[in-house]
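User: I've been trying to design a sequence by hand for this structure and keep getting stuck. Would you show me what you'd pick, starting by listing the structure so we're on the same page?

Assistant: Good idea, let's start from the same input. This is the structure you sent:
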């Protein structure tokens, strides 16, 4: 099979055709822009925060498209902004991309490694009469940018080339104050696209850079730097979000007016927003700095590290990103769809265990006091090959508080006086009584078991409607369980007039102490996911406690409407 046929095969497998694929297919076809070339993409985060679910979408698009067409994807730190960037973020970004399942091999780059070349390219623009040094302040430039009917005003755009060269060199050598001068492209003061009205290419900023230290006091602007970074790395398709669409003419201007090693193309796709959360590093950083959350990896955060700690699996996130697709229209995806993708994965793959998160003592009064027996319980009904495990059962058990009612409501099939219920995989028990404290709270429930119903069977065929889970009291492990809810009380916290901080959900975290989990969880490894029967999916969290801690990743009930 030749390469082309291979691609067609791949396409058939992947029903999610999209405009970026169409673009690439046209480029690699006979006579196309990239005929005979390898597709090369990049994921270029600015290391000024942790990656979030929106970045996950970009990562999937960049890495998976490259893979689909036998190409490569680079990981590049877009570190052209010295003030806001930190090494911690550089490390976290690599960890998160790798965890998501993507590999950049040895192609890990920093935009700051190209500062020297960017400077030389800028000099070449000045020499061609395509850039000039301007002493307008940012405020003056703003006032003089004109409007749709009035051109911008830039009195210094005809500064002699030699003078601009001299001033630019002095800018680089630190002779001038921050904000006193810029290097601007000489393009078109009348352009209907304001990005083309002689945009700034370089600004002065006497700031320490995490990699180049104090070597530079001028830094390139994103619109100038990004196309150069792409061209140096041989990127064929520079994929980014829609807000850069209006910047594409400038991207192309830079590519076309410099003598660069390659000519990349920019293609824009819609940004991902997810309801009830925010996807802006700047805003997420406020949540961290203001200690509204415990850190970037707080399980309520939409960051990749937060989702990981919450119990999301890499494949559930990749699945989510692939299924929402690629489009040209910004929209908000319902958070319940993200949960749906996780639930699908865990339903298939997570081991089932029994845990009681709001314990109530159940005493089987006719069960021998010293006796403990082992009950076989299946590990995963979706994967019989995973077999069964042994769970201890004895006279005293824990059940959920809401699995008992003194006076049952309609359609309540769980435990209440005189009613029979099945203890999952163990026995049928009949409630014989209960004890309350002075405030009237039920503190113990009594029952008798029917020895002939081992395994939960009813040999005489009698009907027992309810099945509840339980944990043996003697061998139970204590655990802390953290239940999460949306971090924001409004579906679109970023769209509202008020600050997103006005919509913080005060009840987004509920911590339950002294929960009881079956003893088989004693060696549960961090980040491992389980289904707590009837309660939801939970994952082990050892980030901030020596106790056994479980995060509820997602409940069992699917709120996603297809
Ligand atoms: P933020 O506003 O969160 O800082 P950003 O776009 O400034 O986002 P970058 O680090 O510059 O963040 O982003 C790296 C890449 O990820 C870019 O190509 C950007 O377009 C893409 N990206 C960022 N946010 C999203 C999102 N919500 N949906 C899809 N892609 C995104
Ligand atoms: Mg950015």
């Amino acid at each position: 099979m030749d390469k082309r046929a291979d691609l067609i095969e791949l396409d058939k497998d992947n029903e999610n055709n999209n405009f970026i694929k169409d673009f690439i297919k046209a480029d690699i076809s006979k006579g196309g822009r990239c005929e005979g070339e390898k597709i090369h993409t990049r994921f270029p985060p600015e290391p000024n925060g942790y990656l979030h679910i929106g970045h996950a979408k970009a990562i999937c698009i960049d890495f998976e498209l490259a893979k689909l067409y036998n190409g490569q994807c680079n990981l590049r730190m877009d570190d052209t902004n010295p003030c806001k960037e930190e090494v911690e973020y550089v490390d976290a970004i690599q960890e998160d991309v790798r965890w998501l399942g993507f590999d950049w091999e040895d192609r890990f780059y920093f935009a700051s490694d190209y500062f020297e070349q960017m400077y030389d390219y800028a000099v070449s623009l000045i020499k061609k009469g395509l850039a000039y040094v301007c002493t307008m302040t940012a405020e003056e430039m703003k006032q003089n940018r004109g409007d749709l009917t009035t051109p911008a005003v830039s009195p210094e755009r005809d500064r002699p080339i030699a003078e601009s060269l001299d001033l630019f060199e002095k800018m680089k050598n630190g002779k001038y104050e921050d904000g006193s001068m810029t290097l601007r492209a000489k393009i078109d003061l009348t352009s209907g696209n304001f990005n083309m009205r002689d945009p700034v290419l370089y600004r002065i900023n006497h700031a320490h850079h995490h990699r180049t230290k104090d070597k530079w006091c001028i830094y390139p602007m994103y619109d100038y730097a990004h196309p150069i970074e792409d061209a140096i790395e041989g990127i064929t398709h520079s994929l980014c979000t829609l807000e850069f669409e209006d910047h594409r003419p400038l991207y192309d201007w830079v590519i076309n007016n410099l003598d660069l090693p390659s000519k990349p193309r920019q293609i824009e796709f819609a940004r991902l927003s997810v309801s009830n959360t925010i996807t802006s590093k700047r805003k997420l950083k406020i949540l961290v700095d203001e200690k509204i959350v415990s850190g970037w990896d707080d399980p309520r955060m939409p960051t990749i590290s937060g989702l990981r700690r919450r119990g999301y699996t890499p494949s559930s996130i990749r699945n989510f990103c692939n299924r929402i697709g690629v489009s040209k229209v910004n929209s908000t995806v319902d958070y319940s769809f993200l949960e749906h993708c996780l639930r699908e994965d865990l339903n298939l793959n997570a081991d089932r265990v029994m845990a009681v998160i709001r314990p109530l003592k159940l005493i089987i009064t006719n069960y021998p006091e010293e006796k403990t027996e082992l009950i076989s319980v299946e590990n995963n009904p979706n994967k019989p090959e995973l077999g069964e495990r042994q769970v201890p059962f004895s006279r005293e058990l824990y059940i959920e508080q809401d699995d008992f009612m003194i006076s049952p409501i309609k359609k309540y099939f769980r435990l209440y006086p005189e009613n029979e219920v099945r203890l999952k995989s163990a026995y049928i028990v009949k409630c014989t009584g209960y004890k309350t404290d002075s405030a009237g709270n039920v503190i113990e429930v009594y029952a008798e078991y029917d020895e002939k119903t081992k395994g939960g069977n009813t040999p005489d065929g009698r009907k027992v409607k309810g099945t509840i889970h339980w944990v043996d009291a003697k061998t139970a492990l204590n655990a802390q369980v953290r239940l999460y809810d949306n971090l924001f009380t409004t579906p679109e916290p970023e769209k509202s007039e008020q600050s997103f901080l006005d919509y913080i959900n005060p009840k987004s975290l509920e911590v339950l102490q002294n929960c009881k989990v079956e003893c088989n969880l004693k060696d549960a490894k961090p980040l491992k996911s389980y289904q707590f029967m009837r309660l939801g999916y939970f994952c082990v969290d050892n980030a901030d406690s020596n106790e056994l801690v479980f995060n509820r990743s997602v409940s069992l009930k699917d709120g996603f409407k297809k």
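That's my pick for every position. To get oriented when you compare it with your attempt: Residues 1-13 have pLDDT under 50 and may be disordered. Residues 53-68 form the longest helix (16 residues).
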